[in-house]
Specification:
Elements: H1 2-21, H2 25-36, H3 40-64, H4 70-91, H5 99-120, H6 134-151, H7 155-166, H8 171-197, H9 204-227, H10 230-251, H11 259-301
Helix pairs in contact: 1-2, 1-8, 1-9, 2-3, 3-8, 3-9, 4-6, 4-8, 5-7, 5-10, 5-11, 6-7, 7-8, 7-10, 10-11
Protein name: Probable membrane transporter protein
Family: Belongs to the 4-toluene sulfonate uptake permease (TSUP) (TC 2.A.102) family.
Main location: membrane
Length: about 300
């Protein structure tokens, strides 16, 4: 019973983070599941089955708050489903420990770029007016879907920073569209796991409590992403990616850092992340104060 309550709380916290930052539901949930089961495929299957419900509610919530670009959802979601089905089928019989550190290095680079860019510069003044096209979103969806299924999470950490870095969408629209398209990916991955594993290795009680926690958190997260300033949101996304993937790399066979070294790195990254968020908040407030007199002057002139 204690395990089920803990899983429910994890589902709530994971969806709250995922719905407001566009990532980390699968990463957070899979980490706990892997701690109590030795089968990575079963852990990923459990998470993706729960995500069918959480992403549906999250997508509807984001749509209600105007955070969804449906063209982007279609262009990245369909190839994402193909990649997820292929990844689920592969993971059902082949371990993926070797690929995880390499992908984490790529994500760490993207996360560092986003953290620095949004903290120091915020959103570009002149955003690229062209929306993300199929040439960009199709391969991105394939890779993100494949990584998501094989790693137990990754749709958000791969898709969100890549689209944010393109400068073609505001953060809340990126997060809303990624969360909404994840429903298609979760369905495809779940079908792949059910075909490859069957149902005997999946604990549906775990699926239910993860789903319940996520469903409760989804509308709250969709509201938060609308009210949090884009500059602050970008810094939060970048810091989440850096912290998550630093952990993966340090624990991998490539590095296998001692516990003390890992703890020191986590503390340094966390301190830098908090400092970046504080700087972004101050910069946003300063920008708001600078814009307010101009708006008042414009009203007086009119």
């Amino acid at each position: 019973m204690r395990t089920l309550v803990l899983l429910g709380l994890v589902g709530f916290a994971a969806q709250l983070v995922d719905g407001s930052l566009g990532m980390a539901y699968g990463v957070t949930s899979s980490t706990l599941l892997l701690a109590v089961t030795a089968n990575p495929a079963a852990a990923s299957a459990t998470v993706h089955l729960a995500e069918i419900g959480t992403t549906l509610v999250s997508g509807l919530s984001h749509w209600k708050f105007g955070n969804v670009d449906w063209k982007v959802v279609a262009r990245i979601g369909v190839p994402g489903a193909v990649g997820a089905f292929a990844g689920a089928t592969l993971l059902s019989g082949i371990p993926t420990e070797t690929a995880a550190p390499l992908m984490s290095l790529i994500l760490l680079g993207l996360g560092t770029y986003l953290l620095v860019r949004f903290t120091l510069r915020g959103l570009p003044v002149r955003r690229d007016p062209r929306p993300p096209g199929r040439r960009f979103l199709t391969p991105l969806g394939l890779v993100a879907g494949f990584v998501d299924a094989t790693g137990g999470g990754g749709w958000g950490p791969v898709g969100t920073p890549a689209i944010l870095a393109s400068g073609r969408m505001e953060p809340r629209k990126v997060i809303g569209s990624i969360d909404t398209s994840e429903f298609i990916v979760a369905v495809a991955a779940s079908v792949g796991f059910l075909i490859g594993l069957g149902t005997e290795n999946i604990d549906f009680a775990w699926v239910a409590v993860l789903l319940a926690g996520g469903v409760i958190a989804a509308p709250i997260a969709a509201y938060l992403v609308r009210v949090v300033p884009p500059r602050v949101l970008g810094s939060a996304v970048g810091g989440m990616i850096v912290l998550t993937n630093s952990r993966t790399i340090l624990r991998s066979d490539w590095v296998d850092a001692p516990g003390g070294v890992r703890a020191a790195v986590y503390v340094v990254v966390a301190v830098l992340w908090v400092a970046a968020l504080a700087y972004s908040i101050r910069a946003h407030r300063a920008q708001q104060r600078a814009v307010r007199p101009e708006s008042e002057l414009a009203r007086v002139s009119s």
